Amino acid sequence: MRLAAMTGPAPTTFEGATNTVAVLLLLTEFAMLRATLSRSQVRLYAVQSLLVSVLAAIVAAERGVPELYALAVVSLALKVVAVPWVITRLLRDARVEIAGSGALSVAWATLLALALAGFGFFAVGSLDIRSRFLPHAALGLSVAIVLVAFVLMIVRRDVVSQAVGFFSLENGVSLASLVVAAGMPLIIEVAFLFDLLVAVVVFGVLMRVHHHRTESLSTESLTMLRG
């Protein structure tokens, strides 16, 4: 009895499932950081987006928020199917397989990402933020995903990695929104997804123009434009 009082109540099946999905989201972000093939990064982004859609459906079923079913379907169609298809098509046209080199080695980039992820997770954990939709740990994991996505965008020197980092950052924001505001109107949630669609168009144009002028997707040549 005394031990049970010290450890607190056991987590429910819903909490265990949602925390597991959130951890898998973070692991896929680290896998993107370590991936050497651009197509592998795109596939990992599709898997991560699928996990976000699954999590939205779980929350909808457990917490009685039917709007999240529609969000899960739209997210599935846009982020799991449409965005990876567009990026893969651009890669096929560019005939590029290997992602650009990083400003840091893979080992150092991973260590930096681990440090930032740990800082973000424990910093948010120290805040007394409660939600009736998802467990408290999911918010810390969402912040960790965002920070690792920033590392991916900063240390990798190719357009595809930076685009995937930006898109996966949006997945971290989606996870955070499920934690703190899962009951917001559906139109606002869908508006976030269409913002992502605009970003896909911008990155797609950037990839085409940059490859046409440099015959490469590496951004190292852009450093000469600095004043």
TrEMBL record:
The chain crosses the membrane at residues 20-37, 44-62, 68-91, 103-127, 133-155, 164-184, 190-209. This is Hydrogenase. It comes from the Bacteria. It is a multi-pass membrane protein. Keywords: Cell membrane, Membrane, Transmembrane, Transmembrane helix. It is found in: Cell membrane. The lineage of its organism: Bacteria, Bacillati, Actinomycetota, Actinomycetes, Kitasatosporales. It comes from Streptomyces graminearus.
